[in-house]
Specification:
CATH class: Alpha Beta
Domain FMN hydroxy acid dehydrogenase: 11-393
Active site: 288 (proton acceptor)
Bound molecules: flavin mononucleotide
Distance between the termini: 75 Å
Strand content: 5-15%
Strand order of the largest sheet: 4-5-6-7-8-9-10-11
Protein name: FMN-dependent (S)-2-hydroxy-acid oxidase
Number of helices: 15
Cofactor: FMN
CATH superfamily: Aldolase class I
CATH architecture: Alpha-Beta Barrel
Structural class: alpha/beta
Helix content: 40-55%
GO molecular function, one term: oxidoreductase activity
Number of domains: 1
Largest sheet: 8 strands, parallel, barrel
Number of strands: 12
CATH topology: TIM Barrel
Length: 411
């Protein structure tokens, strides 16, 4: 009998050619509440939309003759060699795929790039570093200094190559599109409630069934010495009730972390100057992918002013809205050393596990290569602002107004 799947292109070829297609497949594959949690924009989605739309406003200025046959895409970030200028941005990927961050880390290692691991991740840092030694551990400011120190020590002992301190969260809860319901843990009550959603997504369910597991909604990297790993919401509650950090606290983290330190979530020039003065090694110009304070401008709009202010002292990364290799090249042309990606790899992971993340990285890499070629460059390091067309009024120079640039620590 003829194979009924013979004409189904997915059955034979799970490869996808764009991040947009990875997103479509993720939407079809994931239970609705899990997919919505990945979209996750806050309030009216102004920032989520601007993160993506702003890249479309930037044009290229390509050459046509004398293009380079060989193009070098490799770079380094914080001393880590990357085969092209992309890093995995830390995200908690509970319930997307049973292999979670380990699959992402394997894919990143297979493609020669680094991995950012969230403190809210579903896999322990030891397992992630084992498959990708180029791992940066991400922390929020939560708990006491002693607890922060314990998390840092564990990451250091596990072999993390750097610490990412994410500071741009303001606990903005409301979403005009309605937040997805997420259970505290996968117990009997949750299975009854969410069972129908899972049954509607048999391929997602099958991945868990194959391993005899249920989605793990705990945060093993925040495990106390004397108890089990907190649930995602338990950890979130602790974070919400923690005192907010001061610049002295950031200086304290700097003094305690013996290795590269990244401050993630900076969009203002005055904050970037303070971060440089405190001694961070890198900044990620970021608005948390639009999940946080809605109406913060696209991170790519804030990038040039920060590069101008501190680009000679700290490495500047950018995250938010990267959906294609051309976006990476635009960010590089405006002064970023590399970018970090969030949703793009989460969609790849949902669509096809580790292979799906590798697929996303291949799509981005080939897009970077095409753009570098078209722009007549032989290396990502040769990109300049002259390669792109930026419309008037595109930039948002935040934190340069009267009094905004005052820095108390000598820089
Ligand atoms: C579902 C989801 C979870 C995230 N979790 C974290 C996190 O735990 N820590 C963190 O620093 N950033 C987190 N982020 C933000 C990402 O690291 C990154 O800044 C953002 O996704 C970049 O935007 P993009 O998704 O448009 O690429 C999360 C983002 C998403 C979409």
């Amino acid at each position: 009998m003829k194979n009924p799947l013979a004409h189904n292109p997915w059955a034979r070829n799970p490869w996808f050619e764009t991040v947009a297609e990875a997103q479509r497949r993720a939407r079809k594959r994931l239970p609705k509440s899990v997919y919505s949690a990945l979209l996750a924009g806050s309030e009216k989605d102004v920032t989520v939309s601007d993160n993506v739309a702003a890249f479309s406003e930037i044009g290229f200025a390509p050459h046509v003759v004398g293009l380079a046959d060989d193009r070098d895409l490799a770079t380094t970030v914080l001393g880590m060699p990357l085969s092209f200028p992309v890093l995995i941005s830390p995200t908690g990927v509970q319930a997307v795929h049973p292999d979670g961050e380990v699959a992402v880390a394997r894919a990143a290692a297979a493609r020669g790039i680094g991995m950012g691991l969230s403190s809210f991740a579903s896999k322990p840092i030891e397992e992630v570093v084992a498959v990708n030694p180029q791992t940066l551990f991400q922390l929020y400011w939560m708990g006491t200094r002693d607890e922060m120190l314990r998390h840092m020590r564990r990451a250091q002992e596990a072999g993390a190559k750097g610490l990412v301190l994410t500071l741009d969260w303001s606990f903005s809860m409301g979403r005009d599109w309605g937040s997805p319901a997420i259970p505290e843990q996968m117990d009997r009550a949750a299975m009854i409630k969410f069972g129908p959603e899972g049954i509607m997504r048999p391929r997602w369910l099958l991945e868990y069934a194959k391993r005899g597991e249920l989605p793990d909604l705990t945060t093993p990297n925040l495990m106390p010495p004397d108890g089990p790993a907190p649930t995602f919401f338990g950890a979130y509650g602790q974070w919400m009730s923690s005192a907010l950090p001061t610049w002295d606290d950031i200086a304290w983290v700097r003094s305690q972390w013996d290795g590269p330190l990244v401050l993630k979530g900076v969009v203002r020039v005055d904050d970037a100057r303070r971060a440089a003065a405190v001694g961070v090694d890198a900044i990620s110009v970021s608005n948390h992918g639009g999940n946080n304070l809605d109406s913060t401008p696209a991170s790519i709009r804030a990038l040039p002013a920060i590069v101008d202010a501190v680009g000679d002292r700290v490495e500047i990364l950018l995250d938010g809205g990267i959906r294609r290799g051309g976006d990476v090249v635009k960010a590089l042309a405006l002064g970023a050393r590399a970018v970090m990606i969030g949703r793009a790899y989460l969609w790849g992971l949902a669509a096809n596990g580790q292979a799906g993340v590798e697929n996303v990285l291949d799509v981005l890499r080939s897009g970077v290569d095409s753009a570098v070629m078209g722009l007549g460059k032989n290396s990502v390091h040769a990109l300049t602002a002259d390669d792109v067309v930026v419309p008037p009024g595109f930039r948002r120079d935040l934190g340069v107004g009267a009094g905004a640039g005052v820095v108390s620590v000598a820089d």
